[in-house]
Amino acid sequence: MDKEIKELTKAEEQLMQILWDLEKAFVKEIIDQLPIPKPAYNTVSTFIRILETKGFIDHIAFGKSHQYYPIVSKEEYKSFATDKLMNGYFENSVESMFSYFVKKEKIDLAEADEILKMIEKLKNK
Q1: pLDDT for 23-49, tens place per residue?
Q2: What are the TM regions of this chain, as residue ranges (predicted)?
């Protein structure tokens, strides 16, 4: 059974990136990874509770403190976000997305060549 993944806000995604990197952390450890100016402890704690409510993380209790860990993997969220991008902006067309990145000069010729080689390998399977 696939769990339903919800979209993350920019702030939530920033915290998830940290948790995916650390694998498990207390709120203070998460704050330590954030850029200066550091947000208030209560602010981060509120976002952590939201992430838990959304089903992205869970915790282990150590007395009054909690250590949080991801229950949605970075790979699962990447797949969700990519599908959303493809469906929402590129009519589910890899060609359309590839064309967009080439036009915006986000892909150079060497990268384009690598992508074409990957496509050829997939075709030959």
Answers
A1: 999 999 999 999 999 999 999 999 999
A2: none
Q: Say if residue 70 is preceded by a cis peptide, omega within 30 of 0.
A: no
Q: How many CA atoms, within 13 angstroms, populate the side-chain half-sphere of residue 111? A: 8
Is the model's pLDDT at 69 over the cut of 90?
A: yes
Nearest to 54 by CA among 27, 79, 77, 38: 77
Do 55 and 84 belong to one domain? no
Residue 14 lies in a domain: yes
Mean pLDDT of the chain: 87
Q: What is the extent of the structural domain holding 23?
A: 10-70
Could you tell me if 39 and 24 lie in one domain? yes
CB within 8 A of 46, min separation 6: which ones? Answer: none
